[in-house]
Amino acid sequence: MPVASRRAAALAVDTLCSVVGRRHTVRVARFALNQARLDLPNSPEHNGEYALQRWMLSTASHAEPFTVLDVGANIGDWSVALLRQANERGLRDQVRLHAFEPTSYTYGILRQRLPVTAQANRLALSDTAGQRQMFVVAPGAGRNSLHQGAEADEADASTEMVTAETVDGYLEAYGLTRVDLLKIDTEGHDFAVLLGGQASLAEQRISVIQFEYNHRWVYARRFLKDVFDLAGRYGYRVGKLTPRGVETYPGWDPDLETFVEGNYLLGTDNGLRRLPQVAWWKAAGSSRTPLPRSWWGQRIR
Q1: What angle do helix axes 49-58 and 77-88 make, rounded to 10 degrees?
Q2: 28-35, long-range: CB within 8 Å, 24+ apart, which pairs?
Q3: Which among 39, 95, 55 is positioned nearest to 301, based on CA atoms?
Q4: What is the mean pLDDT of the chain?
Q5: Which of the four pLDDT bands, split at 50, 70 and 90, describes residue 156?
Q6: With the CA atoms of 9, 12, 14 and 20 taken in that order, what torsion angle do they form, in degrees rounded to the nearest 10?
Q7: Percent of the chain with pLDDT over 90
Q8: The dihedral of CA 213, 214, 219, 222: what is its sign?
Q9: In this structure, which of 56, 71, 145, 165 has its CB flanked by the most CB atoms within 10 Å?
Q10: Per-residue DSSP letters for 174-240?
Q11: DSSP collapsed to 3 states, 135-191
């Protein structure tokens, strides 16, 4: 940005701060930044999670199994949505769903909501197998985690001992040689789940992995850069999930390390080719990429 433009922009910001205050100015600026970066509200109807299910199912074969692992399934909203979309596309018999929820209360709800054809597991997935301490904010809460958070209610969370397994160990136990979609939502423990699947990643047995990234990664002392390093080791690429497609990155960049709530993808070249693409805002020509409709307007489909 030219010096004159910088000065004009700084003057405009200073003026806005004096009129509405710094707090409101920061909120407006942050909203604009998140919208431009496609860091949208964490709602599966709007952030691309349900769209990813649709995109993946659209390439599924009616003659072969479509294997999905839902890690951190909670009460099963994501799994139920997947099965509903599979039914709509006539793929009910092809989907092989394995859902994981370690806490006893939440697992009970999950088991009731899923059909008997789905494999519901009272398990956590991690980097090693064994017993782990789970921090339970509340029965059925989406913020229950293997990492204790800093919020007041999380600091006072009760604990429950749960059983952990690894992705590699589970796939071997069930004889699964291929996974089409692995979804991870484990409140900051996502990278540990990836570490537990390194043998499967090395053989590229998992086509596409969706994982959640947010400020809870701080509690686990992990970064997106860790994912990029792991991906490069096994021939995978990393991108961010958006309602219009995947914003795939050529490599790690400091601008990605925001800890803003979002879902990212780890995929093989063949796996990511199945999905629509969105140009990264830093890439040449990205300004011509159409943005999704605002989340407060018409529902994104």
Answers
A1: 40
A2: 34/260, 35/291, 35/294
A3: 55
A4: 90
A5: confident
A6: -140
A7: 68
A8: positive
A9: 71
A10: TT---EEEEEE--TT-HHHHHHTTHHHHHTT-EEEEEEEESGGGTTTT--HHHHHHHHHHHT-EEEE
A11: EECCCCCCCCECCCCCCHHHHCCEEEEEEEECHHHHHHHCCCCCEEEEEECCCCCHH
Per-residue confidence (pLDDT) for residue 150, from 0 to 100: 65
Q: Are 148 and 157 in contact (CB under 8 A)?
A: yes
Q: Which of left, alpha, beta for 245 (phi over 0: left; psi -120 to 50: alpha)?
A: left
Query: 205-243: per-residue pLDDT in tens?
Result: 999 999 999 999 999 999 999 999 999 999 999 999 999
- Classify burial at 204, counting beta carbons within 10 Å of its beta carbon; exposed 0-12, middle 13-18, buried 19 or more: middle
- CA-CA distance, 182 to 173, in Å (whole number)? 17
Cβ proximity of 26 and 35 under 8 Å: no
| Domains of the chain: residue spans and CATH | 3-32 (no CATH), 41-288 (3.40.50.150)
Taking Cα atoms as reference points, which of 246, 255, 249 lies closest to residue 56?
A: 246
Q: Is the dihedral of CA 180, 52, 241, 174 positive or negative?
A: negative
Pairing state of beta strands 237-242 and 245-248? antiparallel
Bridging pattern class, strands 158-165 and 130-136: antiparallel
Beta-carbon contacts of residue 5 (< 8 Å; ≥ 6 apart): none
As a whole number of angstroms, the distance between CA 136 and CA 91 comes to 36
DSSP code string of 82-140: HHHHHHHTT-TTTEEEEEE--SHHHHHHHHHHS-TTSEEE--EE-SS-EEEEEEESSTT
Minimum mean pLDDT range among 115-119, 129-133, 156-160, 292-296: 292-296
